[in-house]
């Protein structure tokens, strides 16, 4: 099973975060259409994995969005769209959806589902129910959401462009790939955190 339930510190225990990575997705256009049609069965954060450089970056966006939901401060329709928006370094929500969310041409996909008790008392979906729905509806190879897997899906040129990291000569001069990756991760997370400040 490749759906992981992640414990995110400083969030209420009632809020569960489930994440999955699918490689070589063959039905991205269908999934994109479900989001556009606001199909409630597909209320997930569908993130194009090419713009994610680390698990920490992903979980930073999840934390920020879930905290906004807990505090009643969402700027988007729900916590899942807020996660996609939280990936961005700008306040333009439409631009965030276009750059960081799923598109018909998405090849590798990160899926996030945040579950919590509903206001009407309905029980949240379980880990197994979410996994069953995903493996039935996402046509792709499930992989663990690890830094090792994420780095193989990242488009570094796209990440550098979206987070305005081009032209940082000192970053290019770092010879050690791991050190350069960590520096880039730090810059990306800082850009996400400073959005709107």
Could you explain the architecture of this structure?
- The protein is α+β, with helices and mostly antiparallel strands.
- It has nine helices and five strands.
- The protein has helices at 28-36, 55-70, 79-86, 93-100, 127-137, 147-153, 156-162, 169-172, 177-194, and strands spanning 4-6, 16-23, 45-48, 109-115, 141-143.
- α2 packs parallel to α9 and α3 packs across α4.
- It is globular.
Q: What is the average of the pLDDT values?
A: 94
- Based on the coordinates given, report the CATH architecture: 2-Layer Sandwich
State Rg.
16 Å
Please outline the major beta sheet.
Answer: 5 strands, antiparallel
- Unreliable parts: none
Domain count = 1
Helix count, per DSSP?
9
First-last Cα distance: 40 Å
Let me know the number of strands.
Answer: 5
H-E order:
EEHEHHHEHEHHHH
Helical coverage, percent range: 40-55%
CATH topology descriptor: PF0523-like
Query: Approximately how much beta-strand content do the residues carry?
Result: 5-15%
- The class by helix and strand makeup works out as alpha+beta
Q: CATH top level?
A: Alpha Beta
CATH superfamily name?
CGI121/TPRKB
Shape: globular
């Amino acid at each position: 099973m490749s759906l992981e339930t992640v414990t995110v510190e400083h969030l209420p225990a009632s809020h569960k975060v489930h994440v999955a990575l699918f490689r070589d997705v063959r039905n991205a256009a269908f999934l994109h259409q479900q989001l556009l049609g606001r199909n409630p069965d597909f209320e997930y954060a569908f993130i194009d994995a090419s713009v994610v450089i680390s698990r920490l970056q992903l979980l930073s966006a999840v934390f920020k969005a879930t905290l906004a939901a807990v505090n009643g401060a969402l700027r988007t329709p729900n916590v899942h769209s807020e996660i996609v928006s939280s990936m961005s370094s700008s306040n333009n929500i439409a631009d965030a959806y276009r750059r960081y969310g799923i598109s018909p041409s998405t090849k590798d996909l990160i899926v996030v589902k945040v579950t919590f008790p509903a206001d009407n008392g309905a029980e949240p979906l379980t880990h197994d129910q979410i996994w069953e729905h995903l493996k039935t509806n996402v046509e792709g190879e499930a992989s663990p959401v690890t830094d090792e897997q994420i780095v193989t899906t990242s488009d570094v040129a796209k990440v550098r462009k979206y987070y305005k990291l081009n032209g940082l000569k000192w970053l290019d001069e770092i010879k050690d790939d791991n050190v350069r990756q960590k520096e880039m991760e730090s810059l990306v997370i800082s850009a996400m955190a400073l959005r709107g400040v």
